[in-house]
Every structure is written in C-alpha cells, then in structure tokens.
Amino acid sequence: MKMLKWLREEFLEILPVWIFFFLSFGLVALIRSMTFKEYHIQALQPPEYLVGSLIMAKVVLLVDALMKNRVRRDLPLIYVTLVNTGLYFLGALALHYAEQTISRIRHQHLGLAQANHEALVALGQPSFEAIMLAVLALTFGFCMIREMIRYVGKDRFMEVFFGRRPRRGRPGAEDIRRVS
User: Fold this and answer.
1) Range among 30-39, 107-116, 165-174 with highest mean pLDDT value
2) Most buried among 28, 29, 34, 142, by the most CB within 10 A?
3) Exposure on the CB side of residue 110, measured as CA atoms within 13 A
4) What is this structure's pTM?
5) Which residues contact 34 (CB under 8 A, 6 or more apart)?
6) How far apart are CA 114 and CA 124, in angstroms?
7) Residues sharing a CB contact under 8 Å with residue 160, sequence separation 6 or more, in sequence order
8) Rounded to whole angstroms, how far apart are CA atoms 11 and 163?
C-alpha cells in the first residue's frame, strides 16, 4: 500500500512538468517538420519529443531534489527563475549528451572515445543549437510560471489566471477582476 501511495505521489509530481514539456517539445517538433517540408526534406524522426519531455521532467525533479532549499526565497523572483532555468538547462544538456554517447556506443558499436567525440560534434550543429535555444526559452517560461505559482499560491494563481469567480454568499466573494 505504501508503494502505491509513493508511486501516486511521484506520478502527480511529474505529471504537470511532463505535460508542459510534452506540449512544448511537440510544438518544436511540429515547427521543425514544417520547416523541413518547406524545403522538401523528409524528416525521418520518431516522436522523440515524448522521450525528451520525460527526460526534461525527470531533470526538473532531480535538480529540485538536489537543490532543495538552496535557492534563497527572499530574492526577487527573476533571480530564482534564472538560476532554476540555468540548472534545468544544464541538466537537460548533460542528460542529452550522455544519452547520445550511450546511444552511439550501443547502436553504432563505437568505443567510448569515438562516441564521445561524435556526441560533442553533434552538439555544435546549427539545428541542435536552434532546438536548444527553443528549449532554453521554454524552460525559462516554465520556471517563470512555476515561481509565480509558488509565490501567489496555487489557488490564487488559478483564480487570477483562469478568472474563476468565488462562489456567491461566501465572505470576501468579490470578483477577482475588480479586486486585482
């Protein structure tokens, strides 16, 4: 029973992060394939954004677990957002590099040195750099929204963002748009 409870908590913790990055990476993949189609290039890639979004969600959870209470919460939100964006981005870059190296060793039967070299060369390609800029921008957006939710509280954020009106008859049930 404890195991199921733990799995449920882990799933609920990773779900919003994964959904955000799944939709974001799906958008990047769609834009990339549309651009390739314009130049009559066939993009033969499986939906890698599914795996990428799972990796990014796990990076966020790992960095959060490692950096728990290390970032001072009394700083302005932009500093916390920039620090988290940098950490998540570096974590994602390191995991991507490790995944590329291991993939080359397993599938192309290369030695560690050769696989390492090819993975480093792949990091310098313009298409990879463009995708990583998009990932950086999306990660910044994610961190910014996440810090705002932490600052104002989940209920207040939902109320302000989605315009959910409080039920009538409750004390303090003013319309949120007139109060803010």
Assistant:
1) 107-116
2) 142
3) 16
4) 0.72
5) none
6) 16
7) 152, 176, 180
8) 28
